[in-house]
Amino acid sequence: MAAPCPFLALRGAEGVWLAKGPPNYQLATEFKRDECKLCRVMLFSEDGSLFAWCNGQSVKVAATADGHVICHIDKPKTMYLHFSPRNTFLATWEPYAVNKNDPGSSQNLNIWYVKTGQLVKTFIQKKQATWEPQWSCDEEICARNVNNEVHFFEKNDFSTIANKLQLQKVADFELSTSPSPYHVAAYVPGSKGQPSFIRIFRYPVFAGQSAALANKSFFKADKADIFWNGKGTAILAHTATETSAGSYYGDSGLHYVGIDGESSLVPLGKNGPIYCVEWSPSSIEFCVVYGYMPAKATLYNLKCEPVFDFGTGPRNLVYYNEQGTIICLAGFGNLRGNMEFWDTKQHKLISQPQSGDTTYFQWCPDGEHIVTATTSPRLRVGNGFRIWHYTGTMLHEESYSTELWEALWQPAKKGVYPEKRVVYKPIESKVEQPQAKVAAYRPPGARGQSASFKVHEANELPSNMKKAEGPETMSKAALKNKKKREAAKAKAKHDQEVGHAEKSPTSKTPATNSLVSTGDPDVDKKIKNLLHQRPLPQIA
Fold this sequence. Notes:
The chain is mostly beta strands and about 550 residues long.
């Protein structure tokens, strides 16, 4: 049976609509376009069977199979949506506001039954950053951060708090998505000279000094982002400070912590900020993009050992496809939009297309196609999206005269799109391909002449492309440093040989030759004393 064609959801000034994705692009007839111009948010469920959006009047949930609207929720100010893993509940969040006439309306976090639209529970959640309730993959437990505590609910019973994780000033937590036993990672920022720390617990064992399975403390951390791997066996903690004495961007670090108690600081081969961290879907390796531009990208194993070095280049993001067979290193935002697609098994470069002015990137669940979009408010002109194949071929391009706010692929269950063999030959397309800039702009007076300076350092080659450097391939600075190292080694070797020579035993007694007697005993005695007298030190 052929795999289904995924939907591509689009949200903008023209409303909300769905389109059918690759290999052909066409509007979906199953979903009726919502032409409301005030749509703030849209979201697919994890398996892609449901689609929810808020059009400024109400929140609607529809089935993607036929477009039938399942429920309406009267929450016109909703800003964020979140489905539970098994599509039982829908959580909505709106900005907190106090209503003196109706105090009950101040509760801005609401949980609803998807099938009926019935309200299950309401909470007050002032902070937007940590608003989202976290469910386990089987929906057996649900957790949320409340006033320096993490509250846990069991079996979808939100009327009773089953357990509490109490840590002083806990700022953030992450619940692993793996099945039972469940693990929780909590972050507590440091204060008054005390270090920050992250602890991992196994639910529901939270009490006692030995309750934590792992503990990692560190300084220079105003905030920390926690990333669980797919199997729930380890986390990566990306720590950062706002500013530092040596850099405007602050200090950043990356720490590995496993549920077995192992922890390590991930060694980085270049100074500078950490831009992006991504776990492989296999959960046995991860990729980090870091360092001052041109940034470096490195693949690590679970022992935090570098497995492969992608070299340096203009990139600040990393994305794995769902199958984990291809990795994309991209440079968006204030960069030109370069994309590098790599085969993760062979560690070979597949293609290097360029999508300028890109503000959004996402892999299609089939693991072969991607979407890049130029969206507002980041860029208010030239809004639109492009659909690409990982071999570097653009398959479709759509431009809009009005603002486009978001583009979103429909997810799919695991196994719907199986792993396919990676191809390196670009596929054919009838769409005119974008032309990358051949060279940088040069003023008329400098055209036709060789550049007298370099804007930045040359990009470092990946591990599989590096060759033994010879004098003809090395820069002047590298050649000078190499000569210095060789001279230092030669001097050290010479000093070592001289030291051995001085320590070797030598005869210090002069040769005893028979003295010829002069016949005068006094003269013979003076001659003998002169022969045995120590030499005078040399005058410097």
